Amino acid sequence: MQLTDEIRHFIASPVMIIVGSRDAANCPSIGRAVGARAAREDCAEVVLSAWQWPETAANLIANGQAAITFARPSDYVSYQIKGNVTLRAAGPEDLELSALYRAAVLEMFSELGLAAELVRPWLVDRDPVVASLKVRELYIQTPGPKAGTAIRAETR
Amino acid sequence: MIRLRELDDCFEGVIPSIIATAAADGTPNISYLSHVAMVDDDHIAISNQFFAKTAANIRANPHVSLQLVNGRTGKQYRLDATWVASEDHGPFFAHVENQLHASSAQAGMAGVMRLRAIDIFRVDSIAAVPSPFSTEDTPVGATAPDLEATGRVARTIAEQGDTEGVISALLAGCGELGFDHAAVLLLGDPARGLLATVASRGYDQSGVGSEIGFGDGLIGTVALTGRSVKVSDMSRIRRLGAAIGAAAASDENRTRTIALPALPDAMSQMAVPLRVQGALQGVLFTESRERLAFGKTHELVLEILAAQGALALALCEALASQARPARLRPVNGPVGGRVIQVVHHSFDDSVFVDNIYVIKGVAGRLLAYMLDLYVSEGRSEFTNREIRAAASLRLPEIKDNLETRLLLLRRRMDERNLPIRLFHAGRGQVRLLVNGTPDLQCNIK
């Protein structure tokens, strides 16, 4: 399914990016990504550290099932996308994307009063990989009565 | 293995926690959590206010993963856990509900976030997420007060012989232990469900005489539930309810409302109950401009001081009521000097002296009662015993905390620099000092 311009813009801004995956026993894992872009109209790409999140990387290679949330700390606006992921090694443009993202997040948190020392442990790109998710489902997750509402979901 | 109790700072809600679940068909789901609480060494509870998908997934597949972040160091933890139960009552439900109520009330959203149930999980493993940036040696935030200093303060409180001394020792002790901004609120008017500030430290405006209702904000929640409440990052709450509280600084002579002592830029707040034999006496409140200023130890220390203070206050009340009435002296000589205008509005018992608002409610009624006797009988000394017995005061509950009401009245008159003052005149006795001739008017409107 297609991502709207608004969402494509949102996921590329300094928002928190969380990747959910699961193993063969259907036990879930959480990983944190450091940079995202809308690659095509129906595809989001995120950069994450396979060193910091080995379970997430292993799960994504094994079965590709993923949920990714994008959440803006200043006002809690959040979206979640779900679908199948393919994993690839990060190229120079992915590293650049990640570097820009990390700088922007540090600045964003600094404006909210959080010190850089507090935030930096989350912004790791050692052994970077890129997860490309073909969007199957999209949800609003901003806290409130509309949380969890599907914007559109393709029939599977 | 890391133990759950080592993750104290992760449960303060500064950095949101996250839960991942997986549906029966293997589709993962992520939810941010408004609150994670430690139940015991092996269990945690979450309030999952709005996310139906998480609730559905754990019933189909109880295995979950959580990410918790230490709000002081930024260190991330992975918790693998198994859902065991959902509860809509009981002590852990009450604990989470209490915390949720307090933080939503602070944001002016009381009632919006009603807790329906909590989910309880057994924690199977805890692992620290690796990071090249180690901040463990340089935690952000205050250090906890030590046991020796706490013991010294507790002893000092216990040694006090009157209500004034107890309150002063309690607040001085707060300062000594690093709680730089603190206030003591005591039951002002149980019939109206109100607490009144009797003393504070570390504020530009003392707020003595200000009132807050049961259930309102952090302090009112503690009064209502009898449990301690802590907020570690007010900015999160403030962002949710930015406009609330803008109308705080108003003219008290017009509104007859005194503003609570408050730091406009507080980041951390904590309130603990003053309780004796299960009955609420008041609330001890503290706040800080630091994020995550109060950890578990701070909470325990403040609870120790509150317990000691509550016992000492109750004892002062009990002893004052037993004190033998001293011989009452008439006013010495003719009263002269300028006329002092005193107006008592009986609809809310507010009292104005020379058009300056003094106080309302029970304390206002007390002042009017004493001034009436001063004018009609020339009396300036009053015993707790006679005040308790005075039918005209219509005070069924006054026996519980007359001493604190008198203290409140005394402090408020001092603060407003009035020509009428109240002095402690020995155990269970007060003296009115009037610098002029009061012209007492009772206004029934």
Automatic annotation (TrEMBL), chain A:
Domain of life where this protein originates: Bacteria
InterPro entries per UniProt: Split_barrel_FMN-bd
Organism name: Ensifer adhaerens (Sinorhizobium morelense)
UniProt-recorded name of the protein: Uncharacterized protein
Gene3D superfamilies membership: Electron Transport, Fmn-binding Protein, Chain A
From TrEMBL, chain B:
Gene Ontology MF terms in the entry: kinase activity
Key word Kinase present: yes
Keyword Kinase among record annotations: yes
Top-level taxon in the UniProt lineage: Bacteria
Ranges in a coiled coil: none
Domain Pyridoxamine 5'-phosphate oxidase N-terminal: 6-100
Descriptive protein name: Histidine kinase
Keywords for this protein: Kinase, Transferase
InterPro entries assigned: GAF, GAF-like_dom_sf, Pyridox_Oxase_N, Split_barrel_FMN-bd
Gene3D superfamilies xrefs: 3.30.450.40, Electron Transport, Fmn-binding Protein, Chain A
Domain GAF: 162-313
SUPFAM superfamilies found in the cross-reference section: FMN-binding split barrel, GAF domain-like
